[in-house]
Amino acid sequence: MASHVDTNKKRGVLIVIEGLDRSGKSTQAGALAARLAQSNVPAKLIKFPDRTTPIGKMIDAYLRSQSDLDDRAIHLLFSANRWELATSIERTLSEGTTIICDRYAFSGVVYSVSKGLPFSWCKSPDIGLPAPDLALFLDVSPEKARERGGYGEERYEKEEMQKRVRELFRKFVVREEDAEQRGDASKDDVTWVQIDAGRSLEDVKESIWREVQRVLEDAPRRPLRRLWVSH
């Protein structure tokens, strides 16, 4: 019997929000999920690391400085935590639900590279993950982030570390823009947008919404891409 598949059904959009610790990622991700719901766009919010899984609990203990792990080992655990949800992410998107992801593979790379690990090695475990249609980098200075509540409670919330992370995130944005201008066939196919997150919550929220509206119109017509897979 032939299956009845709705070929006109549009997939959901994968939106990733990245940035320094205390840059407002979780607040803005939650606000975006609520706004999508108000706009009748089915949406789901997920956060990495997912600290509820067995791997996530190991990561949580590490981030709270309750355990110590080799830098390579913790990097691979972060990647494995993303792969735990990869099938679920693809299924949710195929059902027409948009996903807002609070941190993704880019965080995994920049935090590990900032500790001295090679860039190419840090990318390799995440090759083939669902690629986001839009990656938003909430840019805020470490000094500004330090003024916000809860700063310094976890392992990576140190100013020198955050400065290195900020520069690496910016290189991700610039690298993708440069590749696009060159017509580089191996570009990541990720649309990066840098947003000044040092402004008021409302100003940042509106900037994010403008970018999301654009991708909601275009991305569902394209097949879901794979992260860091050359064409």
UniProtKB/TrEMBL annotation:
GO terms for cellular component: cytosol; nucleus. Residues 17-208 form the Thymidylate kinase-like domain. Its EC number is 2.7.4.9. Keywords: ATP-binding, Kinase, Nucleotide biosynthesis, Nucleotide-binding, Transferase. CDD domains: TMPK. InterPro entries: P-loop_NTPase, Thymidylate_kin-like_dom, Thymidylate_kin_CS, Thymidylate_kinase. PROSITE patterns: THYMIDYLATE_KINASE. One of its GO terms (molecular function) is ATP binding. It comes from the Eukaryota. It is an enzyme of class 2 (transferase). The keyword Plastid does not apply. Pathway: Pyrimidine metabolism; dTTP biosynthesis. One of its GO terms (biological process) is dTTP biosynthetic process. NCBIfam families: DTMP_kinase. Belongs to the thymidylate kinase family. This is Thymidylate kinase. It comes from Sanghuangporus baumii (Phellinus baumii).
